[in-house]
Amino acid sequence: MAKWAEATVMLLLVAVAVVVAAPPPPPPPPECDPGKLSACAGPIFFGSSPSKSCCSNLRAQEKEGCFCSYASDPAYASYINSTNARKTIAACGIAFPSCLAPSP
Questions:
Q1: Which domain holds residue 43?
Q2: Is the pLDDT at 93 greater than 90, yes or no?
Q3: What is the CATH number of the domain that holds 46?
Q4: 35: Cβ–Cβ under 8 A, 6 or more apart, which residues?
Q5: How many domains does the chain have?
Q6: pLDDT-above-90 percentage for the chain
Q7: CA 73, chain centre distance (Å)
Q8: CA nearest neighbour of 27 among 63, 62, 72, 81
Q9: CA-based torsion, 81, 83, 88, 94: positive or negative
């Protein structure tokens, strides 16, 4: 019984060490504020035409490289990768970043 307990403790210690040693994901640049995209809520959720304000905000976020940060964040990935988000980005004349390119 003691060997089993020692093995369990060792496995737990190794698991904790792996979790502690794993680097946290890098935070998005401070300019990447998803709240600034509220003007695009209608187009992204309902497929309506984007407003000038929406496109302006998208261009600002695109310049900062925010789309890829959003795409890798589980809280925002489903929105930025949605069909309506792609249509909105395209309607604003913004090229898709390579991280959002559809997979073959």
A1: 34-95
A2: yes
A3: 1.10.110.10
A4: none
A5: 1
A6: 31
A7: 3
A8: 72
A9: positive
